[in-house]
Write a structure and sequence with these properties.
The chain is of the alpha/beta class. The chain has helices at about 20-25, 65-70, 80-85, 100-115, 130-135, 150-160, 175-185, 195-205, and strands at about 1-5, 30-40, 45, 90-95, 120-125, 140-145, 165-170, 185-190, 210.
Length: about 220
């Protein structure tokens, strides 16, 4: 059962910060899940929202700030998170908008220039069109199909793009659909499972990994 730290170790340290990712590593996670947006100067920044309002003292869209300004607000560059992880954990990068080329090319850079492996990275998204596009780019990057509604649709789409995993909202899961996903060859990484009761339930279904704000509870 893989431990997947949601935005680092969000239950303990401010989400999507270098400190949160360091905490997740210290807690023994296998995978770190994070989110990305582009800065004004087209740098890949690690932040969940499209604005800085909720997680910083400033207001406005991420793409209205330069990377250097965002870093001063505690929002790290994806490159800095990759360097922190340094092959200790897999990075699951959730795409929310048009960053496909930026993220894939940064992964390429680490593979071809820094001797990393594509297996050190995963890309997931609720935007299935982005995943479908990446599947045409001929990169052996594991793709994760995020869903919060129909698992039947997720399975059909995952088959279409030869995805690695299906990452569903955990309350969608039952013995039958977990079996269906496994029979089709997909790993199952449900989100975001935090309470002891919910973790016990999800574990009983024999999923492959659990995304949690408290990865040490898994």
């Amino acid at each position: 059962m893989l431990k997947i730290g949601h935005r680092g170790a969000k239950g303990y340290v401010a989400e999507n910060t270098l400190a949160s990712f360091q905490k997740a590593i210290e807690l023994g996670v296998d995978i770190i899940e994070l989110d990305v947006h582009l800065s004004l100067d087209d740098k890949i920044m690690v932040i969940h929202d499209e604005t800085v309002d909720r997680t910083t003292t400033k207001k406005g869209f991420v793409n209205q700030y330069k990377a250097s300004e965002l870093q001063k607000l505690g929002i790290p560059l994806l490159e800095d998170v990759i360097n922190l992880a340094f092959k200790q954990v897999i990075l699951n990068i959730e795409l929310k908008d048009h960053l496909v080329y930026n993220v894939v090319y940064l992964i390429d850079k680490y593979v071809f220039e820094k001797n990393w492996l594509y297996e050190h990275f995963q890309i997931s998204s609720f935007d299935w069109k982005l995943l479908e596009f990446i599947s045409t780019m001929n990169r052996p990057i594991a793709l994760g199909v995020l869903t919060e509604d129909s698992l039947d649709n997720a399975i059909a789409f995952a088959k279409k793009i030869n995805a690695f995993s299906i990452n569903p909202y955990f309350k969608l899961l039952n013995d039958e659909n977990v079996l269906a996903m496994h029979q089709n060859g997909f790993k199952i990484y449900p989100w975001t499972v935090n309470s002891e009761e919910d973790i016990t339930f999800v574990k009983s279904l024999n999923v492959d990994g659990i995304i949690s704000d408290f990865p040490d509870r898994i």
